[in-house]
Specification:
Helix content: 25-40%
Oligomer: single chain
Shape: elongated
Number of strands: 4
Strand content: 35-45%
CATH class: Alpha Beta
Largest sheet: 4 strands, antiparallel
Distance between the termini: 17 Å
Length: 122
């Protein structure tokens, strides 16, 4: 069996997540990376979308989860995204999701806070 990886890198959304009340009110920038492991040999050999992951559909699910909900933790976002993508895309073996929160409120300069979650088929 061969394994390939399809990635979405730095999908950017404006959303309202965080522990502080102001973060929910004002919102902020969130960035998402998704690494999806699968065997896409048949898709590549036949140039056939139906034999690989449809990353437009994955992006749409990410956008929906991030922008239509409010959570306290980016860990929650990473977990929900990875589990939902793995559940929806039966062809995948494993999904790694990285959620970055730009300029987190940590009391000083910091580019981002980041949470990484990996979901895999048993």
């Amino acid at each position: 069996m061969s394994v390939g990886i399809v990635r979405l890198k730095n999908a950017v959304f404006y959303a309202h997540h965080g522990v502080m009340q102001e973060e929910h009110r004002i919102g902020g920038r969130y960035e998402v990376d998704v690494n999806m492991k699968l065997d896409f040999r048949a898709a590549a050999e036949n140039d056939d979308l139906s034999k690989t992951v449809d990353y437009e559909r994955v992006y749409s699910e990410i956008r929906k989860i991030i922008t239509e909900n409010n959570y306290f933790l980016i860990e929650r976002l990473a977990f929900l995204l990875a589990e939902r993508i793995l559940e929806a895309e039966n062809i995948l073996f494993e999904v790694e999701v990285v959620v970055r929160k730009a300029n987190p409120p940590v009391g000083g300069p910091c580019d981002c806070a980041e949470a990484v979650y990996v979901a895999a088929r048993a």
